Amino acid sequence: MTDPRPEGGRPIEDYALLSDRHTAALVGTDGSIDWLCRPRFDSPAVLGRLLDPDAGHWSLTPAAPYRTERAYVGETFVLRTVFTTDTGTAVLTDALALGPATERGRIRLAARAPIATLRTIECTAGELDVDFAFRPRPEYGLVNPIFTSIPGGVLATGGPARFVLTSPVRLDFGDDGATARLHLDEGRKLHFCVQTADLAQDPPPAWTPEAVEAALDETLIGWQDWHDAHPDWDGPLAPLVKRSVLVLEALRYQPTGAIVAAPTTSLPEAVGAGRNWDYRYSWVRDASFTVQALAEAGCHGEAVEFFEFMTRAAAHYQPEQPLQIMFGIGGEHDLSERELGHLAGWRGSRPVRVGNAAWLQPQLDVYGELLDAAWHLRGHLQGLDEPARQFLSGMADAAADQWEQPDQGIWESRGAPRHYLYSKLMCWTALDRAVKFADRLDVAADRVGTWAAERDRIREAIETRGWNPRVGAFCAAFGDDDLDASVLAMPASGFLPGTDERLKSTVDVIDAKLRDARGLLRRYETGTDGLDGTEGSFVMCTFWLAQALALTGRPDRAEAAFALAADCANDLGLLSEEVDTASGAMLGNFPQAFSHIGLLNAAIAIRDARRSRPGWLPSVP
């Protein structure tokens, strides 16, 4: 079918992810790169049509009506899009160049990435015309560069970067960018490349077609070798599981090992609702879930790198202050939030935000997530040095000292602080893991005794103040009767065995009351987060439900819930943050690491449940 560009922005599910592990690009089914930040995931966008029609794009699109098919090449992030018109067929190949992937016999994916975007287009049958447009707009669309001719292409200058576009054909350029109409006959193949250089550098020379082809080959080999160096998935839904592991690697910033929650900002949780956030940062919240998923997938080195990034970024910790909940991908702490008023937003969803004010919120769950991550990695962490031991011990002390305080909760509510059950559960987890980990932390016996005593106090508080017999569930916060999907993390924490009737009842009540009309879970009941408007259903929560059902001995129901969430993936196996409850369309930042982490952990729980003997129930970790 014809692929018109909808007013206000393409559907989120129409996009594909490209990555060089320094940044990411989103490519639409129409062959347009509509999102690219250079040189880092969190740098200002140079192609930003995702958020405003005038904020920049690079498109190669048939001039006549066309049909589209697309797929990644093997287990890589090299994308092939096939355009078919009434007169011919063309194959567009897109990638962000990785550079050499092997160094001294070791895979170092993208350690020497050349900061280049690669595109080739080849006519494989008949003939057709293709419209080419390169319209970079640095600084989130504020800068309209000046174009000049150079040998082998054009140079775009303006703002803090310069762009060298390699082009084998003559381009027209002016105030609106570099454009051309390309006529392709069968067998003709054109190679394009954009390199980025900052103002302190001389612009690099344009590449030859052979250099572009070689860089594509390097990128294919690099991704495939990385995939092949890790254990193959031996459970159900292998394509989705494999792609989810690859997505986490694609979102992992190569220089530090940090994982961005998503490579985009301000894709809304509901159109026009104002719930638009910048997710190009790394959350402590994600640590234990991510480490568990990566370790179970055989990516132990990657899990250790992520854990070490988190502990180093937070190493300034002051015991009397809450631990910061998120960091920049280079370890930055100040993530001050601002609005970009000149951008229209995806489908008019203003404001567009950069930075994230949640960095200032206290969230007590972070202590448990860090110590649980350390516990999962205990067999892979080499000897902990003194700063690491002090830091992890300080996390346990903080959990013991602060657990009775209210906080903003895992969902970063902008309402009044509450005594969220999930936060208390994670403080219990922090102390439980610290007690079990005490020999590695080299702490005095009386300190361990304090941790154990506070752990037991938290248990009593959760069992007496968190359990609501009227509702038949552990509820969102002490003394309240609203529900929160984060409580579904309780089975995986080991707080109660999977046989516990209260635990099973909690899972069942959340299953019954937080489902939407499509069978997907909402994060919580409405009116509890201090924000106006509504949101879609949260993909991660449905995977949490599947995991919790498996861990409480109901694998058949777990598989049904898993299938509903897995069906939210687009044709390339990519998941967004949320799904519109009415239409099933994707919402929120994309692709969302949390959703792919949830898929992995749910798949692992279901696989393990199916492998176990009849009547199996999980043991407490």
TrEMBL record:
InterPro entries: 6-hairpin_glycosidase_sf, 6hp_glycosidase-like_sf, GH15-like, Trehalase-like_N. Residues 10-177 form the Trehalase-like N-terminal domain. GO terms for biological process: trehalose catabolic process. Signal peptide: none annotated. Residues 240-603 form the GH15-like domain. GO terms for molecular function: trehalase activity. This is GH15 family glucan-1,4-alpha-glucosidase. It comes from Glycomyces artemisiae.
